[in-house]
């Protein structure tokens, strides 16, 4: 189900042969002539962890960003009430001691005691209430916070708060695991969200020290961390947007972790004995969503046509040849293995172009039909290649496809205007709970300006029921029924889930590649 | 026309040009993409996107947005970045120095390398040295900076370990990106210096100078080179301005914290105020560079000053 593997490495000789040296120097002689004659001292200080990171965070306030990478930097300082377990994705308490639904509409959270923010403010019910409200009121969080619309947070005692909602909200634990960082109320109120994002204060293992724009963010050890002082003194997140640069820096020993790589570059490190590549099944799932309500999309109103188009695509071929096997096939459903609601009984439709052609003919389109297929360029790994290949698969079963490759900003704009295409690529990275995915799909009129397909009435009834079912087993059972319906009347061509790759120096101990893409430093240490 | 008057006239001429560029950028950036939607992610509702657009003033009519922008600009306020929630001037200020360091180093390297190479090629016309230099020119102009940067990084950073693979802060960090950025310019200028020198070296006054018994060094460097540099200097000015734009790729490869990367991020996020601010600054750089070159003509060639 979950695959975090360490890839063994062969030795890379650091010595350069005379022949290679002469050849290379000849090719780029001017540079070599001017370069220093001494070997660059790249060794890291033994107590400093340097992470080559893929972006320059726009803020260190996780209340104002939904970008998991930006959150990962802030998470050196700030902590949440709960975490997703790295492998099982089960939500487990972190700053919270425990929680329970004391009534279907009342969610009670008990907090750990004896914890303070690094500015001396206590972490207690007042801080938790302030943080929960700050999260829910943040414009950036409006979409997720809408799940608890009409909420109130009440202090029961110093270490207990309740979240009361007008209707039962079964996903509050997932929201705790994904969002809801705890902030010091006095400082946060004093400086405001933007200033807080420049110099955050939290309860976490590190304290924010400095930032150099587009270069790095530095944190130092919090000596009073509630779990005991962290073994690493200093953590530096170095901004390195180009992934080849991250890999080269790791190989050269300039950084300890090269975060977020593609398989093609991560595999470059397979011969290096000083580093280990970690791979993990990620949570981003890729679909080709149908938009039957766009002009010319009438054939897609027929569920059999939508099933036929799923048969038209060779998923195994796509995974094998485009991603070199480094992606996870979706099993005829939106959910990835491990995600809450995943159905073990469903499987992929199977590649059968003859059956697809027959089903399209039986639906009244013996000569096929025309549609527009939109996909992004450069937004996701190999998105252009996937778009082109799927278009080809569809053409093979008689569909005349007009391809529409777009830059992400324009893609997003057209999607909201509902002018994007009859089928378009989607790469969803949501909370690993099908509730969020179903919300995304069912309320497509909000996201994309109009309903995408005709929804099955039974599906709607089950969806409404699931939204107020706080018993996890019953909710999962409802999701399975919904997935069954959707398998027969698909919303999309179900494609694949991505895999994430990180390369880590062998002096780093305790690194865990997490499915949710977060980088948590809690258990990391450095060997001497 | 005296120099101060000439400079003042050129400065005044830039105002309508800047205004035109601002109108263009203001309009074009708003044709595609919605920053609020991009920031809020895949599942954002129209309501939440609308609320954020309200907060940023993006729901006001375009004319009002533009008028507000110009009004604030006249008071020195370039607005606040949507993505970073910080003043645009601060963000640009943080990055401008890094860009200027990179571009200046590249220009210096370009001049220092290309002029001797061009002169050597001209003096050794059709011989082995000339052939080798012409080969370098072709390769230097043909290899994309992105690819060259990666090659240099892998060679000097990874294989030889002479220089850091990326980063910012010391002269060692500067060498690889500056050479990467400079290489096509070196190639271009070398070709220009070579052809200009070949033309000048065959001129009558050079033959006269030689006939007068002047030394070869004096003929080449005092008489021929000064006259041969007009075209390369013009090209250098154009190149210097282009280098700021070309630096985007180099900054990306080497993690150099310059304006180019900031511009790229701003475009992807549709951070309108930041894009406008960067374009404004880049325009000013181009204008000032051209002005400096125009003025420098006069120093190099008195005839140009007289005209």
Task: Lay out the secondary structure.
The complex is a heterodimer of chains A (528) and B (307).
Chain A: E1 5-6, H1 18-27, H2 29-34, E2 48-53, H3 68-74, E3 82-84, E4 91-93, E5 96-103, E6 106-111, H4 125-137, H5 142-145, E7 152-157, E8 160-164, H6 172-178, H7 185-196, E9 206-212, E10 216-221, E11 234-239, H8 243-251, E12 257-261, H9 263-266, E13 275-290, H10 303-311, H11 315-322, E14 327-329, H12 353-362, E15 370-376, H13 383-396, E16 400-406, H14 408-417, E17 423-428, H15 434-442, H16 444-448, H17 457-466, H18 472-488, E18 492-505, E19 508-509, E20 525-526
Parallel strand pairs in A: 2-11, 2-12, 15-16, 15-17
Antiparallel strand pairs in A: 1-13, 3-4, 5-6, 6-8, 7-8, 9-10, 10-11, 12-18, 13-17, 13-18, 14-18, 19-20
Helix pairs in contact in A: 10-12, 17-18
Chain B: H1 3-29, H2 35-40, H3 46-56, H4 62-74, H5 88-123, H6 128-142, H7 145-159, H8 171-201, H9 204-211, H10 216-228, H11 230-254, H12 259-268, H13 272-300, H14 302-306
Multimerization state: heterodimer
Give the tally of β-strands of chain B: 0
Report the biggest beta sheet of chain B as strand number plus sense, adding barrel if it closes.
Answer: none
Rounded average pLDDT of chain B = 85
CATH architectural category of the largest domain in chain B:
Orthogonal Bundle
What does the model show?
The complex is a heterodimer of chains A (528) and B (307). Chain A is α+β, with helices and mostly antiparallel strands and 528 residues long. Chain A has helices at 18-27, 29-34, 68-74, 125-137, 142-145, 172-178, 185-196, 243-251, 263-266, 303-311, 315-322, 353-362, 383-396, 408-417, 434-442, 444-448, 457-466, 472-488; strands spanning 5-6, 48-53, 82-84, 91-93, 96-103, 106-111, 152-157, 160-164, 206-212, 216-221, 234-239, 257-261, 275-290, 327-329, 370-376, 400-406, 423-428, 492-505, 508-509, 525-526. In chain A, strand 9 (206-212) and strand 10 form a beta hairpin. In chain A, helix 10 (303-311) runs antiparallel to helix 12 and helix 17 runs antiparallel to helix 18 (472-488). The two termini of chain A are 34 Å apart. Chain B folds into 2 domains: 3-74, no CATH class; 95-306, Orthogonal Bundle (MetI-like fold), CATH 1.10.3720.10. In chain B, helix 5 (88-123) crosses helix 8 (171-201) and helix 7 crosses helix 11 (230-254). The longest helix of chain B is centred in the middle third of the chain and has 36 residues, at 88-123. Chain B is globular. The mean pLDDT of chain B is 85. Classes of the chains: A alpha+beta (528), B mainly alpha (307). Chains A and B meet through helix 1, helix 2, helix 5, helix 8 and helix 14 of A and helix 2, helix 3, helix 5, helix 7 and helix 8 of B.
């Amino acid at each position: 189900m979950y695959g975090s593997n360490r890839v063994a490495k062969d030795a890379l000789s650091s010595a350069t042969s005379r022949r290679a040296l002469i050849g290379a120097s000849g090719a780029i002689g001017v540079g070599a002539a001017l370069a220093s004659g001494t070997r660059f001292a790249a060794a890291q200080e033994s107590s400093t962890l340097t992470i080559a990171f893929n972006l320059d965070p726009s803020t260190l306030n996780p209340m104002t960003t939904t970008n998991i990478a930006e959150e990962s930097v802030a998470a050196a300082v700030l902590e949440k009430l709960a975490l997703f377990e790295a492998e099982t994705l089960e939500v487990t308490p972190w700053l919270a001691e425990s929680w329970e639904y004391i009534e279907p509409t009342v969610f009670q959270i008990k907090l750990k005691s004896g914890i303070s923010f690094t500015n001396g403010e206590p972490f207690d019910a007042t801080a938790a209430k302030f943080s929960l409200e700050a999260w829910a009121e943040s414009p950036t969080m409006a979409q997720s916070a809408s799940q608890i619309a009409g909420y109130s947070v009440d202090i029961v005692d110093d270490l207990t708060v309740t979240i009361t909602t007008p209707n039962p909200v079964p996903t509050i634990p997932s929201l705790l695991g994904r969002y809801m960082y705890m902030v010091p109320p006095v400082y946060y109120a004093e400086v405001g969200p933007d200033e807080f994002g420049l110099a955050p204060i939290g309860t976490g293992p590190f304290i924010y020290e400095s930032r150099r724009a587009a270069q790095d963010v530095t944190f130092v050890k919090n000596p009073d961390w509630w779990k005991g002082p962290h073994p690493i003194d200093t953590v530096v997140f170095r901004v390195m947007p180009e992934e080849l640069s991250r890999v080269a820096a790791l190989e050269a020993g300039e950084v300890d972790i090269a975060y977020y790589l593609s398989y093609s570059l991560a595999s470059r490190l397979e011969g290096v004995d000083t580093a280990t590549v970690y791979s993990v099944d990620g949570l981003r799932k890729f679909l080709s969503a149908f938009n039957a309500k766009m002009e010319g999309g009438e054939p897609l109103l027929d569920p059999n046509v939508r099933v036929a188009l799923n048969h038209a695509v060779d998923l195994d071929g796509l995974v094998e040849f485009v991603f070199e096997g480094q992606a996870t096939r979706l099993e005829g459903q939106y959910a990835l293995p491990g995600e809450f609601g995943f159905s073990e009984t469903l499987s992929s439709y199977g590649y059968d172009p003859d059956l697809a052609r027959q089903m399209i003919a039986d639906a009244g389109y013996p000569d096929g039909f025309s549609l527009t297929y939109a996909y992004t360029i450069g937004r996701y790994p190999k998105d252009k290649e996937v778009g082109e290949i799927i278009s080809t698969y569809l053409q093979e079963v008689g569909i005349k496809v007009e391809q529409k490759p777009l830059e992400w900003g324009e893609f997003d704009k057209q999607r909201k205007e509902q002018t994007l295409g009859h089928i378009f690529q989607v790469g969803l990275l949501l909370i690993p709970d099908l509730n969020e995915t179903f919300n995304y799909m069912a309320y497509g009129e909000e996201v994309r300006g109009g309903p995408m397909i005709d929804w099955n009435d039974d599906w709607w009834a089950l969806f409404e029921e699931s939204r107020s079912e706080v018993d996890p087993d019953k909710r999962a059972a409802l999701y399975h029924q919904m997935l069954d319906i959707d398998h027969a009347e698909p919303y999309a061509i179900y494609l694949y889930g991505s895999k994430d790759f990180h390369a880590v120096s062998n002096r780093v101990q305790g690194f865990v590649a997490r499915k949710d893409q977060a980088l948590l430093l809690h258990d990391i240490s450095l060997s001497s | 026309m005296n120099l101060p008057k000439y400079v003042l006239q050129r400065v005044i001429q830039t105002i309508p040009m800047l205004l035109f560029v601002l109108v263009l950028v203001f309009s074009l950036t708003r044709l595609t993409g919605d920053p609020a939607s991009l920031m809020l992610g895949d599942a954002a509702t129209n309501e939440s996107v609308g609320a954020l657009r309200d907060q940023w003033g993006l729901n006001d009519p375009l004319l009002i947005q533009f008028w507000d922008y110009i009004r604030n600009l006249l008071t020195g306020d370039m607005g606040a970045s949507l993505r970073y929630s910080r003043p645009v001037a601060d963000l640009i200020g943080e990055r401008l120095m890094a860009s200027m360091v990179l571009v200046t180093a590249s220009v210096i390297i370009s001049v220092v390398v290309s002029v001797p190479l061009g002169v050597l090629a001209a003096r050794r016309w059709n011989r082995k040295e000339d052939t080798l230099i012409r080969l370098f020119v072709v390769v230097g102009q043909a290899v994309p900076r992105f690819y060259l940067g990666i090659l240099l990084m892998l060679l000097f950073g990874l294989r030889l370990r002479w220089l850091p693979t990326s980063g910012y802060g010391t002269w060692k960090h500067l060498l690889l990106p500056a050479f990467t950025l400079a290489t096509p310019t070196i190639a271009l200028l070398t070709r220009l210096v070579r052809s200009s020198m070949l033309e000048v070296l065959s001129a009558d006054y050079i033959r006269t100078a030689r006939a007068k018994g002047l030394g070869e060094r004096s003929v080449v460097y005092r008489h021929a080179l000064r006259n041969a540099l007009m075209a390369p200097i013009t090209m250098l000015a154009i190149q210097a301005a282009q280098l700021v734009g070309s630096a985007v790729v180099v900054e990306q490869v080497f993690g150099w914290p310059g304006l180019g990367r900031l511009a790229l991020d701003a475009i992807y996020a549709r951070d309108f105020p930041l894009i406008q601010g960067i374009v404004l600054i880049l325009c000013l750089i181009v204008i000032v560079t051209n002005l400096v070159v125009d003025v420098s003509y006069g120093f190099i060639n008195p005839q140009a000053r007289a005209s």
